[in-house]
Amino acid sequence: MKKNKIITGIDIGTTKIAVIICEIENNKNINIIGFGHSTSNGLRKGIVEDIDETSKSISQALKQAEDQAEIDIESAYVGITGAHVKGINCTGAITIANNEYRDPAGEKISNKNIKKVLEHAQAINLSPDRKILHTLSKEFKVDNRPNIKNPEGLSGHRLEANVHLVTIARNIEKDLETCLNRVGINFDGFILEPLASAYSVLDIDERNLGTALIDIGGGTTDVIVYYNNSILHTGAVPLGGANITNDIAHGIRCPLDKAESIKCEYGIAKESLALDEKNISITGKNGRNDLEISQKDIAKIIEPRMKEIFIMAKNEISNTEHDDNLTFGIVITGGGSKLKHIEDLASDIFQQDIKLGQPHSINGINDIITNPRYATTIGLIKYALENKNSFFENESVNKSFATKMKNNLEKFINYLNIK
Fold it and tell me: In angstroms, what is the C-alpha Rg of the chain?
């Protein structure tokens, strides 16, 4: 009897680490069998600043997921984001010629031709400290026929590829690898986090007819723009929910954990929609007087920062050629999207249709599959599954016994260190 495939995704964020273990039935049905999360320590804006603390945070979330799934995990797909991520649109072209005789109708385009033209599109000058993470094909052109998604088998003389390249800093990727090695996990591949979120939240019509996805995380806000089922732009804003929490802590002089709970319980994105009744009690610290504040007082702090995030995201979206032709407008997801009346503020700024996006087409724990906070985590699985041709050929199933033993030993040692 054929065993179902097991896929693991690890979302390493600024404020949380989330691990999801899924069983794949019939290569399409996704069932969550294990989930774990922990507070993220050792990271800032998606970038590792403390290897030990980050490793411990990953280990805690991983153990929760493994215990729930009742299996040990050896490898995972890992999300990556941050201001170091850069997207660029590039073009490559080749002549299709299989022999000396030139057929007036052209030659049939093979998979080898497609790989070659994509290699040409990747031939850009990158500094040694950067690498290409994803080559996302937008469309192909065969002779004078544009907007072709799959040219294999078509006939022509010239093949052109328009692609969106995502590049990252090598040292930041290496630091994440080091943390994974500390907990005995090999990585199946790094996946751009807004790309994962898009696979989790957007449907095919939204990708085809035009949508900008804004994923508000703890340390960064990621932006990805789709049109004609192609990625036109990817970008990251170096602000997120943690900045709002900090603003509240400074504004009302309270600890960060208290500021976070106030944001989640009373926070509202638009001051004009907030209540003016002073019914929020703040206990003074170190002899300071207690405070009674209103929801409007909190909104006065939140709205300017939220406006700043949206304006920066709007600037990212304006870098695309179809920014004024997004049929489905703006979709907002991520933990920051749970802020009350956030769609009202977004509507004022973007002047487009606004929708709050949550994961879909996955089975499992209700608190996870309907929570936009875990859109990226779920999307890692969905992206890996739908792009298995580029990922699964290097599956960790073929790892040597020695490698497996090394990973298990490192994991065991790390569990002992965090107890």
Answer: 23
